[in-house]
Every structure is written in C-alpha cells, then in structure tokens.
Specification:
2 domains, two-stranded antiparallel ribbon, rod-shaped
C-alpha cells in the first residue's frame, strides 16, 4: 500500500514537470517553424533578386543605352524642327515636334446619352386651405431629365469621355540614370522638368 501511495505522489510531482517540458517543446517547435519559414522566404527573395539583377544587366543596360541615344536624337531633332518652323517657306505647314504624331491621341467624346442625367425638380403643390400656401412632402418632387451642356474646350471632361493624351517631348520627360560606371545617362535639366 505504501508503495502505491509513493508512486501516486511521484506521479503527482511529475505532472507539472511534464507539462512544463511539453510547453517548452511546443514553444521550441513553433519557434523552429517560424525560423524555417523565414529562411525559405529569405532564399526565395535572394533568388528573385539575383534573377532581377541578371535581367537588369542583360536587358536593362542595352535598353537604357538605346533610350539615352533616342532621347539625345529626340532633343536634336526637336531643335531642328523648331528652327525650320521659325523660317517656314511660303505655303508650308508647320512641322509637328518629333514623336508627337506617334504618341498623341485625341480626346474621345462620350456618347450623347452620357450627357443626360436624372435630376430632381420641385413642383409646386398648393394646399387650398383658408389663406395658406404649403409645399407638400416627398410627392412634391418629380424626377426630370437634365441635359448638361459641356463647357467649350472641355467636352471630354464634362461628357465623361477620355481626355486627349499629348505628352511632353521625350527628351524633356525622360530621365535615365546610368546602371554601371561608364554607362550612358540622360538627365533633364531641373528648370525644364514638368
């Protein structure tokens, strides 16, 4: 009997100790899982970064060099066109700036139906009381179609259409830093930045 009681007391003593060990083991397992997740995210991020860096050198450098050359050419041609437009021969139309014919998109007006909207107008409801005139409740309003006339020159905006796309010349809007030392670069002077 004493032997059984001793075993019970030993078991009662071990229960909190085992619970504490179980709690520590669960915490260690959770910490290890979090750390493993961090390591896998880190490895995936390193792989993405390395692939991007390789693409930047293989694709980005030649593309940046081509854009810099294009911006220099755009600027030179812009100056030539401006000079020609200042001294036009008789009967000749002014030339559009380089790239404008390719990049410009005129405004798209919305259909006429989009110019109408529902409006609320109050109609007079007169009560035939002794000497009072009253306006009625909700039934004293009627829904009417209101036609909005667009402001001249802002048709696309007032009609809900698409505005014209007329971007700045390429050489005044494009800025390309060099990727590596010695690579070409193109900067827009600060006073010309839009």
């Amino acid at each position: 009997m004493d032997r059984c009681e001793r075993k019970i007391k030993d078991a009662e003593y071990l229960i909190p100790v085992l619970r504490d060990e179980l709690k520590k083991a669960a915490e260690n397992e959770r910490t290890a899982a979090i750390e493993e997740g961090r390591k896998s995210e880190y490895a995936a991020c390193c792989a993405l970064r390395d692939a991007h860096n390789k693409k930047l050198l293989d694709v980005g450098r030649p593309a940046a060099a081509a854009l810099v050359a294009l911006a220099h050419e755009d600027r030179k041609l812009f100056e030539i066109v401006a000079k020609i437009n200042r001294n036009l021969p008789a009967g000749a139309e002014p030339l559009s700036p380089p790239g404008r014919d390719v990049r410009y998109s005129p405004a798209i007006s919305a259909p006429r139906a989009a110019l109408t909207r529902l409006g609320v107008k109050m109609k007079e409801v007169v009560s035939k009381s002794a000497s009072t005139l009253r306006h009625g409740g909700p039934e004293s309003y009627e829904q009417v179609e209101v036609i909005d006339e667009p402001v001249k020159g802002l048709e696309a905006f007032s009609a809900g259409g698409e505005p014209a796309f007329d971007p700045a010349p390429l050489h005044l809007a494009l800025e390309i830093p060099s990727l590596l030392k010695g690579d070409p670069q193109y900067h827009v002077p600060p006073h010309l930045k839009f």
